[in-house]
Structures are given as structure tokens and as C-alpha cells.
Amino acid sequence: MQCDCQTEIEKKLLERFKSEYPNSKKHECDLSGYAMVLGKTLEYLPAMTIILRHTVTAKSGAEREKKIEQKMIGNYCMFCGQPAKPQQTEV
Ligand SMILES: [Zn+2]
Question: Of 11, 12, 71, which is closest to residue 46 (Cα–Cα)?
């Protein structure tokens, strides 16, 4: 990511969480929705989870529901709109 939205938002959410539960300790906040993606370098990019379900019929005729989870990678920060990766300049 090229912006600090994830860090900034996690910090704000953690502050609010702490104020809501002042008698607790070891508060933590992780903003999920990002994935490590290996390209030319290892990058941390926005990722939306896609859940696919289907019913499979076996040769015996028995039906079974199957679930597949995949990640769809975003190109922009969903908070500020900046491109997630540095823009390539064409020569
Ligand atoms: Zn951002």
C-alpha cells in the first residue's frame, strides 16, 4: 500500500475499543481485508473474500454442498482511493 490508511484506522479503532472497555487489558485490533501478494516484490494489498458454494452430485446420486473461498485483490485503497501499487510510467 502507498498510503497509511490501514495503520491510521487500526490506531483509531484501537483507541475507541480501549475507551469502550477500559477495565480490560491487552486490547488488539487488526483490520483484515488485506493479503500478502508475491509479485516482483512482496506486497500487502486490499483483498476481498469471495465465497462460492455449489452442490455436487456424486455418481451414487448423493448430493453434497461444497464451499470454495478465494481472495479478489483490489488495486486501490478503499479509504482514500490511492493506487495500492506505485503507478508504472510507460517509456
Ligand atoms: Zn488509503
Answer: 71
Distance 29 CA to ligand 1 centre (A): 18
pLDDT single digits (tens) 57-86 = 999 999 999 999 999 999 999 999 999 988
Backbone torsions φ then ψ of 70, nearest 5 degrees: -130, 165
Alpha-carbon separation of residue 34 from 27, 49, 71 (angstroms): 21, 10, 9
CA 26 – ligand 1 centroid, Å: 27
Q: What does the domain layout of the chain look like in residue ranges?
A: 5-73
Q: How far is the CA of 69 from the centre of ligand 1 (A)?
A: 25
